[in-house]
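retry 2 of 3: previous attempt timed out while embedding 1-O-alpha-D-glucopyranosyl-D-fructose. Reduced batch size to 1 and resubmitted. Inputs unchanged:
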Amino acid sequence: MNKKWWKEGVVYQIYPRSYKDSTGNGVGDLRGIIEKLDYIQSLGVTIIWLNPIYTSPNDDNGYDISDYQNIMSEFGTMRDFDELLSGLHRRGIKLIMDLVVNHSSDEHNWFIHSKESKNNRYRDYYIWKDPAYDKTGTIMPPNNWGSVFGGPAWEYDDTTNQYFLHIFSKKQPDLNWDNQVLRNEIFSMMNWWFDKGIDGFRMDVINMISKYPDFPDYNNNIAWLDNKTFMNGPNLHKYLKEMYEKSLKKYDVMTVGECFGLPLEEGKKMAGEDANELSMVFQMEHVDLGSGTYGKWDIVPWKLTSLKDIFNKWYVAMEECNGWNSIFLMNHDQPRSVSKFGNDKKYRVESAKMLATMKLTLKGTPYIYQGEEIGMTNIAIDTISDYKDLEILNHYKEAIERGEKHEKLLSAYNYKGRDNARTPMQWDAEENAGFTTGTPWLKVNPNHKEINVINAENDANSVLHYYRKMIALRNANEALIYGTFEIVDYSNEKIFAYFRKLGNTVFFIMLNFSENKVRFTLPDSIAHSKVTVIISNYPKPETMQPDSEYELQPYEAIVFKGALKM
Ligand code: TEU
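retry 2 succeeded.
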């Protein structure tokens, strides 16, 4: 397996709208990020992923782009961007941008022209279809696909009497990747950013760019599960290879493709060492844990063994193709990791540190989402109008019409809603958490009085200081980057324990995912050996000679390294 900077790096994801507002208009911006560059550097991270900062009417917070080569005015100017990029590079930090090319905004010039007539040169940049008709002759969408954000995935346009496809909101029409001219426009736009000096792209829903050409109806109405419609279509790899040839290959860059509903085999074809497609993918199976048969808002308990299964099968798959994984527990679309996978009440600090230990010791590039490094939690919202996310607002409207109960819906949103991740970054205990001097675009979590960067800096036992230690530990140990991964006591529902091994170096990691004390039988190679305690979220001696059994405290994480009997 080749060594690469992006395998050795640690990524910090910044959602600019919620990071730091430098103007007082309630919206985070590029100059706000520039103000925080020393803080970012102090974490030890080496790569930043910025959510979309391009010109956008913000129907979906920048995931609806109307100009790919300009900066959203709320966020600043291209000069601010250039300053941010050079500020990062000066600090030895790379920058990856969000590439949102499955769809554009309906306010993009391409779409404005595309709508005008059936035979203009931009018509075929988007996916237009004739209507279908039911038995009574009533006009119907071309097929039964639904939009991820509610309602049908097709919008009728009476200028030309056709429907256009929008897998997301109707202000996000899908681009037609089967059109070579469109593909070339995208590749040259990518090259323009690479020539400016950026270091890679995170690619939004990239496995949706190739649709099944006959646009078949779903077999059921759960789109993610149906693989023969708009995901992983027949030309997916052809288009990614073409992107590699015409753009990626010319630069030393990193790419990560966001892929819901990605079969392992497809992932291997994308991220394998010789695939000539992407550096890695975000498979989404583990963040989908806790969703029932009816999808995201159908909340069911999740099991630790399922989490192990997912990490393990993607580990094995990537070993088979010499590929590389991404390791993350949340992003701007997911609930806060400590609220979902840890315990944000009694054991917030312990469990946030435990999750940090896991993220930085699994095999793959770790991603930290802003605020995760101080253990930020979900927010409790009890008024629907305090939510700003169109996914929640659209779902609420439809669900109430169907007769679902307000309380049940709010509790689902409080647990899983995307706004949990998007509440402003908590810098201090002051009003608005030091995020803005104005009115924040989304509510600040009231717990910022306790959970904030200043408090964390001043507390030697904070999640923040622990993150810094974990990042430094990973940066300094090749075995934690390139070493093999081997789970011990696989069926244990409370403890996730595993080895990382490279050459003579062995790490043994034990993570308690429960609020109970748990006795764990150590593998022979660890029991009765003299081992170094590299890090733990409870006070521990520097070395230990553990018995055959070790008792873990609630949410304990402990990492042993040592002269082990192998
Ligand atoms: O997300 C893909 C996606 O479909 C889900 O994350 C979706 O937003 C939702 O959570 C499913 O229930 C990407 C972006 O990360 C997201 O922010 C955008 O809204 C979406 O694509 C459209 O561009």
